[in-house]
Design brief:
The longest helix has 18 residues, at 182-199. The chain has helices at residues 54-62, 84-94, 110-120, 127-136, 152-164, 182-199, 210-213, 236-243, 246-255; strands spanning 10-21, 28-39, 43-47, 69-74, 77-78, 95-98, 170-174, 203-206, 218-223, 226-232. It has a 6-stranded mixed beta sheet with strand order 6-7-8-3-9-10, with helices on both faces. The chain has a 4-stranded antiparallel beta sheet with strand order 2-1-4-5, with helices on one face. The protein is built from 9 helices and 10 strands. The chain has one domain (10-255): P-loop containing nucleotide triphosphate hydrolases (Rossmann fold), CATH 3.40.50.300.
C-alpha cells in the first residue's frame, strides 16, 4: 500500500471566529462563527461584497482586533485571548501585513522601511537579508530611495519585502493591488505567487478583483460574516461568475 504524503500543517486557523460591534438590538455581527484553516505554503483569496466581514477577518487573523469569541491560531499559538501588547509583539515576528495604501514611512529609505519591523522588535536588520529581499522584488537599485521617489507599484513591492523581512508564518494582504495600475498590480501578484511557490510562504489576500483572485490556489467567499462558498483552482471567469451569484451564496450561508 502506497503511503500518503503528510498533510501540510496550518499556518493560520480560526475556529468559531465571531466579532460583534455594539450591544443590544443595535449590535452588528461582522463575523459569525467562522471556521477556516490555511495550510503552510498556500495562497488563498478572500472575497465578498462590501460589509461581508473581509477586513474584520483579516484584522482578527492578524491580532489587530480581538474577537468577541472563538480562536485564532497562528503558527500553533492561540492568540485570541492575549493582551494587545502581547499580540503586537507576536505579530511583528510571525505575521506580515501588506496594506492597500503601502503605509511606508516617508522619511525612511526603501531599505530602512524593509528593516523597520525588525528594529521595532529591538533587532538590528541584517543588511544582506534586506538587500536580498529588495533584489527579489526587483528594487536592488532603489534601496536608498525615499518612498516619494518611487512609483506606486515600487512602493507596494517595498511593502511586500517589508512584510517578508521577519520570515513570518503567514502574510496577510488587504487589497494589495487596489491602488495600482494594471501592470503594477500584475507585478505585485506575481511576487506574492512566487513567495508561495519558491519560499513556501502562506498568503491570505483580501481582494475584490477576480483577476487577482485567479493568482491564488483557492478562494473563500464571505457573505454577511459567514463562509458562503469555496473555490479551488480559480479562474477569473469562474470567480466573476460566483460573485454574480451572491444572493445564492448568502442563502447557502444562512442554510448552513
Amino acid at each position: 500500500m502506497q503511503q500518503q504524503s503528510p498533510r501540510p500543517a496550518d499556518a493560520l486557523a480560526v475556529r468559531g471566529l465571531t466579532r460583534t460591534y455594539g450591544t443590544g438590538p443595535n449590535a452588528v455581527r461582522a463575523l459569525d462563527a467562522i471556521d477556516l484553516a490555511f495550510a503552510e505554503g498556500s495562497f488563498t483569496a478572500v472575497m465578498g461584497p462590501s460589509g461581508s466581514g473581509k477586513s474584520t477577518f483579516l484584522n482578527c487573523a492578524a491580532g489587530v482586533e480581538q474577537p468577541t469569541s472563538g480562536d485564532v491560531v497562528v503558527a500553533g499559538q492561540d492568540i485570541s485571548g492575549w493582551s494587545e501588547a502581547r499580540r503586537t509583539a507576536f505579530r511583528r515576528r510571525h505575521v506580515g501585513i501588506v496594506f492597500q495604501g503601502f503605509h511606508l514611512v516617508p522619511y525612511l529609505t526603501a531599505a530602512q522601511n524593509v528593516g523597520l519591523p525588525l528594529r521595532l522588535e529591538g533587532r538590528r536588520p541584517d543588511r544582506q537579508h534586506v538587500a536580498r529581499l529588495l533584489a527579489r522584488v526587483g528594487l536592488a537599485d532603489r534601496a536608498g530611495h525615499l518612498p516619494g521617489e518611487l512609483s506606486g507599484g515600487q512602493q507596494q513591492r517595498v511593502a511586500v519585502a517589508r512584510a517578508l523581512v521577519a520570515v513570518p508564518a503567514v502574510l496577510l494582504a488587504d487589497e494589495p493591488t487596489g491602488a495600482l495600475d494594471t501592470s503594477s498590480a500584475r507585478d505585485v501578484l506575481r511576487l506574492l505567487r512566487s513567495s508561495v511557490d519558491e519560499l513556501g510562504q502562506t498568503v491570505v489576500m483580501v481582494t475584490h478583483d477576480p483577476v487577482a483572485a485567479a493568482y491564488a490556489d483557492s478562494v473563500v467567499f464571505l457573505v454577511d460574516g459567514r463562509v458562503a462558498g469555496w473555490m479551488s483552482r480559480p479562474t477569473a471567469e469562474a470567480v466573476a461568475g460566483q460573485l454574480a451569484r451572491l444572493d445564492d451564496l448568502a442563502g447557502a450561508a444562512v442554510a448552513s
